[in-house]
Structure formats: structure tokens, C-alpha cells
């Protein structure tokens, strides 16, 4: 049996960025503009620029008095993120961006264009403290939580990119760097801004937003009570506690049974089907008996309200972890499905651009060392 180890969810002590417009609720925005000597209606005016027109530079907000635009910039729109590297693949349909934050920490986001949608994968933390050994981000540890503004502005940047291509951003998934439910308050605030209609948000459907977690069971239950209808994705990766204690160390706190019980609570309270993420790792978690156990446990816990996304592992350089062969993958899918649980293989984008979450940041840190 794997040793039970304590887990630390708090970020290292690093400075959070200056307050940004997206960090504030409506009343706080009104207070801020009043502090600048402006009437209250300017707060909504600015919000329409940020969320509706996807503008984050007051210099372009021409219906604001020119004399106060520099003050608004300083007070509400500090520079949060600077692009360090942008790389593309899949004939330009996938774009990964590495950002440097105000304190030098790094984060990643990935924009994926499909014929019928455009999906942005965003980060909720700089690094990650969950310590999953097969994950590049987990290997690097946690720098800090992202501010709400840093989360939301990833979305605004991508939405502006799609607008410039005469298209639009349709889907957002919290599957980048970090454990979203370990930065709970800011992630929920960001979700509300992503999904609320302008002037309060970008107006993306809640059903097109996915929040992932490695299984922070109490936070899953809390999210279920928020009145949201986002998709919950649980990164399970293993159906048995003995192996999952090693692959996903948070399992030392909340067992597979407790995580699936929380997922059932989420499905009951939201009416949404839960997605189970399962990274298939050669000779580690790809055994037929584990596939059968996974299907049985999911069917018992969630019935028809569950779907398994099988993820071919994208190995990181120097890692001992590798992807399962395709015949093993196909047998795993068939076995899970035989237990009455839909199981599909996720489309893998960006294989040639350090696609595994955290790889690009790790390469940048190594190059700067």
C-alpha cells in the first residue's frame, strides 16, 4: 500500500498582481471610477469595452474622456501578462502561448480551432501543487494562484484573436496549469465573468465551460451548490486506491469512492453528465481488469450520467511514463463500454509543440537557467 502523505494546497509566497478590472465586482468598479472623479455610469461603459469589445487598453476606449484614460489605465488595467512564446501546429489550428506574469512566473494557454467550435484551454494557477508524477506541471511544483484578472484575461485575449479571424471563441476548459478547485473563489468568479452576458461577461454558454479537478471532493460539492451548469471533469486516472495514491497523491486525502460520491452529488444537483479523464499510461494503469473496474465503479456511482475521456499520455522529456499501444487503448475503451459507460479517446492536439501541460514553461525555465 502506498504511504499516506500530506498534501499542501497553499501557494508559495509570491506577490499577486496589481488589481485589475476583472478582479472587481460591480460595486467595487463603481467605487473605483468614483475615486477617479468619474460618474458611476463610466464603470458600465468600461465593462462594455472589456467584455463586449474585448478591449483592455483605455487608449482605445474613445467614448471615455481623453484626459482620464491614462488614470483609468493605471487604476484598472495594469499589464498582467506578456507573451513570451507562441507556437503553432495542426496547420495553424492549434496555438500554444507561454505568458510571463508581473512577477516572472510563467503560465500557458492553448487555443484549438475546430470546424464547429474554438476551444481555449486555460490555466488557473502558475504551476501546480498536486504532484502527479506523470504531469509536467506537477513536476515543477506550485508558484502561486492566479488572480481572477489573470484567468479572465486569458479568455479575453483568445476571444479577441478569434474575433480578428471573423470567428468567435465558443468553449473554455480549465484544464491548463494548476488545480482549479485549489483556487476556488477566483475560478468561480472567472466562470461567472466568462459566462455572463455583456456588460458583465463574455457571454459564453455555461454548458460550454468545463472545470477540471483531480478530485478535491469537498470543493466538488461546493461547486455543485453554486447554481452553475458547467461541466465537471474529474481527472481520475485510476479506479483503485492503491495505485491512485501514487499517480494522483490527492487520493491520500479523498479516496476514489469519496471522489465518485462527490461527482454523483454534482450530477444530482446540476443535472449535468460528469466527464472522467483517464490518462492511459503503458503498463501502469492500462490493464483490462482496471478497465473493467473503472466501468463498474462509474456505472454504479453515476449510471448514465458519466462519460470517460481516454487520454493517450503525451510523455514529457526524460520521463519514465509512456503512452499505451493502440491495441491496448482500443481494448480498454471496449472494456469500459461493455460495462455500460460511454468511453472515447480524446482528440490529441499539438503533439509537436510541447503539448503536455507545463512542458513549454519547463523548457523556458531550463533555457533561462
TrEMBL record:
InterPro entries: Aldolase_TIM (IPR013785), Methyltransferase_A (IPR040072), RNA_MTrfase_RlmN (IPR027492), rRNA_lsu_MTrfase_RlmN/Cfr (IPR004383), rSAM (IPR007197), rSAM_sf (IPR058240). [4Fe-4S] cluster binds at residues 128, 132, 135. Binds 1 [4Fe-4S] cluster. The cluster is coordinated with 3 cysteines and an exchangeable S-adenosyl-L-methionine. GO terms for biological process: rRNA base methylation; tRNA methylation. Its cofactor is [4Fe-4S] cluster. It comes from the Bacteria. Keywords: 4Fe-4S, Cytoplasm, Disulfide bond, Iron, Iron-sulfur, Metal-binding, Methyltransferase, rRNA processing, S-adenosyl-L-methionine, Transferase, tRNA processing. S-adenosyl-L-methionine binds at residues 178-179, 212, 235-237, 314. It is found in: Cytoplasm. Belongs to the radical SAM superfamily. RlmN family. PANTHER family: 23S RRNA METHYLTRANSFERASE, RADICAL SAM CORE DOMAIN-CONTAINING PROTEIN. This is Probable dual-specificity RNA methyltransferase RlmN. The lineage of its organism: Bacteria, Bacillati, Actinomycetota, Actinomycetes, Mycobacteriales.
